[in-house]
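Our consortium's second objective concerns turning raw sequence data into structural hypotheses that experimental partners can test. To show how far this objective has progressed, the report includes one record in full. It was chosen at random from the queue rather than selected for favorable results. The single chain below, 208 residues long, was entered without modification.
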Amino acid sequence: MTVVIVDDHPLAVKGITAILSRSSNIKKIIEASNIEEALNIIGTEKTDVAIIDLKLKNEDGLEIVTGGKKINPNMKFIILTSYISQGDFLKAEKIEVDGYLLKEATAEDLLFVVDLVSRGKKYYDPEIIKYYKKNSENQNLINQLTNREKEVLYEMGKGLSNLEIAENLYISHNTVKKHISRILSKLNLKHRSQIALFVKDLENEYTG
């Protein structure tokens, strides 16, 4: 098996190379640091699996997947990322990435995933699935809110007081209190302090 590592951090490449060298199934390891180099390697070498850093300086590692599949439809692609982003995960899922793994994974995890995807299976890190499920559940809860309740929710997420929310939305203080009561009930939250964390999760979903 020939594996290409695409990462613009030399130390990361050395670490991944050291791990892959432990596998008797991997006969050749090739390195690339950007999209152009990676696609050139895929086009000229008989590569089987690519391990790609999601963020390559100002480049998107997912572009290697879309471009690489056109060059070699049978090749497998694994994305490595240091953080969880639902936006990136959904993009990766849409273009049918074979593996999606957090960089905090162990050496054994990486070897397992490389072997798994090389045999035509898919693997998505359990932590990413857990995060995605949580955000999906949050969105379902948000859909229960009225437009005005959503406005109040996001104002609360900014840490504003009831009086400040009332002034910003041109509604009475008592109306704000009623909206907050209904919001907490619909979102299955008990305390106002939980609102900020809930809103932060939603913002991560849209900006991630």
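The partners drew two points from this record. The chain has a mean pLDDT of 88. The first strand starts at residue 2 and ends at 6. Both points have been shared with the crystallography group to help prioritize constructs.
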